[in-house]
């Protein structure tokens, strides 16, 4: 038999206030717990007969009031001990995590941390843009979401970018990771086309990544810079496809 104490009900009520309390099979309320419910007008649907309210064991014998007090105090001590152990374990876990994630241990300089934060901002912008595209061009949205995952891989030690190269007149697998100029300049003429808003959104993503390129090379290395250029060149291909269809717009 498990006894539900006043402390148990107080913790439960503090977390989620309730107006009805139903005891589970194999449990029984202590007098203090019953008084707690009565003071707050909380109903007990499966109310037991009055003969058992004050400790009737069901065999004709009643347990004295001090028995219930002893059980309630014992449960309270157990709860306090469990809570203290949980706090100690949580503190130890936080301490270990702090040691593992300490920037000094990972050799993260303020410049590198600033770059990683800017990359996270770029990821957020890619996700937002992908959601905008999803409303009218699901395939384009999927391409943007794949590029966002490539940006997330820049912070990893190993090379993770799996962005496929769809060869066109100006871009092929041989130069897909190189620093290349824009296929054509985006002007007011282009943004007034049917897909003008989509063009400017892609162009904004490309401009943002070009700003980050030198810092990626400096803080993350040449390999990560090449991964970033894959995303930039992939955006250039998408821009060409939106404006010129299947015809590459890159100037010779």
Beginning-to-end CA distance, first to last residue: 85 Å
Hey, roughly how much beta strand do the residues contain? Answer: under 5%
- Quick one: biggest sheet? 2 strands, parallel
Mean pLDDT: 78
Structural class: mainly alpha
Enumerate how many helices there are, as a single number.
Answer: 9
Order of strands across the biggest sheet? 1-2
Please give the share of residues in helix.
55-70%
Instruction: Give the overall shape.
Output: elongated
Order of helices and strands: EHEHHHHHHHH
List low-pLDDT spans: 48-61, 99-105
Q: What Rg is obtained from the alpha carbons, in whole angstroms?
A: 33 Å
How many strand units?
2
Description:
- The chain has helices spanning 6-15, 31-39, 50-53, 65-101, 110-134, 138-153, 188-191, 196-220, 222-244, and strands spanning 2-4, 27-29.
- With 252 residues, the chain is mostly helical.
- Helix 5 packs antiparallel against helix 6 (138-153), helix 6 (138-153) runs antiparallel to helix 9 (222-244) and helix 8 runs antiparallel to helix 9 (222-244).
- It is elongated.
- The protein starts with a strand and ends in an 8-residue tail after the last helix.
